[in-house]
Amino acid sequence: MTNQGGAAFGEVRSSLPVSHDSANSAMKWDESKERYIVAYRHAESQAARHWPGWISALREAGIANFAARGFPTVKDEDWKYTSVEPIAAESFSTANGEAKSVDIGAVAERAMVDPAAPRLVFVNGVYTAAFSRPVEPASGVVLANLGEFIKMDEAKAAANLGRYADTRDQPFVALNSAFLADGAVVSVEPGHRTDRPIYLVFVSTGARQSIISHPRVLILLGAGSEASVVETYVGVDGGYFCNAVSELVGGPDSVIEHYRLQQESDAGFHVGALDACLDRGCQLTAHSASLGGALVRNNVHVTLAGEGSGCVLNGLYLADGKQHIDNFTAIEHRRPRASSFELYKGILRGGAHGVFNGKIVVHKEAQKTDARQTNKNLLLSAGAVVNTKPQLEIYADDVKCSHGSSIGQLDADALFYLRSRGIGAGEARSLLSFGFAADVIGRMRIGPLRRRLEDYLVGRLRNGQAQ
CA-CA distance, 36 to 304, in Å (whole number)? Predict the structure, then answer.
C-alpha cells in the first residue's frame, strides 16, 4: 500500500452495546487520586533514605504526573472501552509479610516455570530471595533485583530506568513510578546469550486484604546479544491490584524473545505496560497470554528506533464469566527498513468483554516499512462482547502496510463434520476453539512452556465452559 502523508483508521465492534461508566459524573475521581497522593507522601520520607537521589526524582515525577492526569476515563480515546472505576474506587493496602504464606510449589506450577531455569520471584512486589534462583557466574548475564543492580552498576541503571516508560501519557506508569520500591533487572552483555530462559515471577495475594503492588522490570540487551525472558503474573487468591511496568532496551543486532503470561485470580485487577526501544537491527518477539483477572489492561509500546529493526507481537486472550481483558498496542516506525508483524486472537464466552486497540505509526523518515496487523476474535456465547479497533497512521510514501480484524463464531460446517464422526458437541467446540488459538501458541519457541500452555488451554476449553 502506498500512502501520501495521510492517516487511515478502522474500527470494528460487535453488535452488542459497550458498557461505559454507569455514573461517571458521580465517581469521586479526585478523592481516589488524592488517596494515592497521600499514600505517596506518607511513604516517600522513608523511601528516600534507602534510594539514591535519581530514584527519588523518578518517584516524584511519577506522582506529579499522576496528580496532573489522574485515572483515565472512558472519555479518553485510548480507554473508551474500559472503565477503571473498579480500580479507582478500591482502597488497597501494601503487603506485609505475605511471602511466608505462599506455597511456592503451587505457584511455580501455575506460573509454568521451568524449575531448573534461573528466576527472580517477587511476592506482592517484594523480592523473595528464598524462592529465587541465580544465573551461573561469569555467564555474561546479570539477573538481580533493582537494589542489587544499582550497587553493581548504578550508572547503567540511572541511564535506563524510567527513560522509556512515559509517565506523562500513561497514568498507571506514573503510579508505578511513584511507588517504585523494588524491581527485576536482566542485563545481557554484548555478544552473550542466555543458555536458558530467564523467569521473572510476580505473585499477588489478597485473601486477607486487598493488596496493591507495583512490579518493575528492566531488560537490557547489549549489541549482538540474545535472550529469552518470561514474565509471569499469578494470583493466589482474593482481590488485589497488580500494576506492572517493564522497560526493554535492545542494542544493535540483538535478539530478544519476551513472554508475558498473566493468570491473575478471578477477583484480581491487572494493568501491565511493556515499553520497548529497539536499536539498529534489533529483533523482538513479544508473546502475550492473558488468561485470568477480573479487569485486565495490557499496554504494549514498541519504538523501532534503528534502521532494519523489527518486532513480532503475538497475543492470546481467553475470557469468560464477567472478565474484561483489554489489549492496547502501539508500534512506532521511526527509521527505514523496519518491520512489524502483529497477530492477536481472543476467545470469549459467557458475559466476557474483550478489547483490542492497535495502532501502527509510520513516521516520514521510515521509508521501506513493512507493517502488518491482524486481530481475530471468536465468540462462544451470545453474551460475549468484543470491541476491536486496528489503526494505521502513515506519513511515509514507500511502505507496505495492512491491518484487519474479525469477529465470528465457530464454523457450523466444521462442527457438523466433527459431530458426524462421533465427536460430542462439547468436545467438538473445544477442539475448534483450540485450533483457532493454535497458531498463536505455536509461535512460542520455548517448548516446555508452549506445551504447558497448550495443556492449560485444552483443559480450560473442555471444562464445561465452551458452550
Answer: 34
3-class SS of residue 177: helix
Is 317 a member of any domain?
Answer: yes
Strand positions, DSSP E, 324-458: 324-333, 339-348, 353-362, 369-379, 385-394, 399-408
Judge whether 13 and 406 are in contact, CB under 8 Å.
no
Same domain, 354 and 417: no
- Same structural domain for residues 371 and 447? no
Residues 428 and 388 in one domain: no
Range of the structural domain that residue 416 is part of: 411-467
For residue 405, the one-letter residue type is S
C-alpha cell at 197: 530462559
375/444 same-domain check: no
Domain termination site, one of 410, 426, 454: 410
Encoded amino acid at 295, one letter = L
Cα–Cα dist 131/117, whole Å: 12
Number of domains in the chain: 2
d(CA 410, CA 154): 54
- Kindly state the helix (H) or strand (E) to which residue 149 belongs, with its residue range: helix 146-160
Distance (Å, whole) CA 242 – CA 176: 10
SS (H, E, C) 271-284: EEEEEEEECCCCEE
Q: Verify that 368 and 457 share a domain, yes or no.
A: no
Asked if residue 292 belongs to a domain, the reply is yes
C-beta atoms surrounding 209 within 10 Å: 16
User: Within this chain, do residues 135 and 258 fall inside the same structural domain, yes or no?
Assistant: yes
Ordered per-residue pLDDT tens for the chain, 467 residues: 333 333 333 344 443 334 444 445 444 778 889 999 999 998 887 766 778 999 999 999 999 999 999 999 999 999 999 999 999 999 998 876 556 567 777 777 788 988 899 999 999 999 999 999 999 877 899 999 999 999 999 999 999 999 999 999 999 999 999 999 999 999 999 999 998 999 999 999 876 778 999 999 999 999 999 999 999 999 987 899 999 999 999 999 999 999 999 999 999 999 999 999 999 999 999 999 999 999 999 999 999 999 999 999 999 999 999 999 999 999 999 999 999 999 999 999 999 999 999 999 999 999 999 999 999 999 999 999 999 999 999 999 999 999 999 999 999 999 888 999 999 998 999 999 999 999 999 999 999 999 999 999 999 998 854 43
Structure-block grid coordinates of residue 235: 494470583
Please classify residue 50 by burial: count the beta carbons closer than 10 Å to its beta carbon, then call 0-12 exposed, 13-18 middle and 19+ buried: exposed
Task: Give the pTM.
Answer: 0.92
293 vs 296: CA distance, rounded Å: 6
271: in domain: yes
Q: Is 151 contained in some domain?
A: yes
